[in-house]
Amino acid sequence: MRDGPIPTPGQPQRPWHDGRNGDPAGPDVNPLRRPCDRTRTRWHVGLALALLVALISGVIVGARMWSGAGRTARAEAAHRHETTATTLARATGVATAARFGRPATSVDASWRAPDGTPRTGKVAVEPRTAEGTKVTIWVDDAGAVTRAPRSTAEGRFGAAVGGTFVAGALALTAAGVVGLRLRRAEAATLDDWESEWAVVEPLWTHRGRT
Fold it and tell me: How buried is 17 (Cβ within 10 angstroms: 0-12 exposed, 13-18 middle, 19+ buried)?
């Protein structure tokens, strides 16, 4: 026969609502469920919630960066100007590994600011560039050398990377904390088992009887 209370006729049955399985909507009445089991369950639920929060946080950060990518690209394009500089000396040095495809050396050059004011300074060129070579550079409103304005695509790629980084960092932190707590709970459980077995084992093996 089935253990537990007899359901009232016409009352919907809930197979999980009995003393063997516990009631998820109420206190756990499963007599076989140990405190360590409840601790693991709470930490697993906490980890699931933390991962959800990490995902939502990453999406929020990425969305904000994504929405700002277009504005940043337009702002940079409005205040950065392409112009031509003339090298004042021959570039010396040997070619080295360039990062992001940029030239590996620099040389003195002259150019004009957006308002027409003459400017001089260092510009990036290919090694062994001859004196008097025309090179394209980008300058700001004051005429100082700067990098080319970022495109909207570059900004959105950075937004995707930023959102992924935030979500990953939070998820790894949560997983590390929960993993540490579960290891401690497991160690405490093993200690309890050893203590309880030290009491029960002589009774099962009939040791200590004369």
Answer: middle
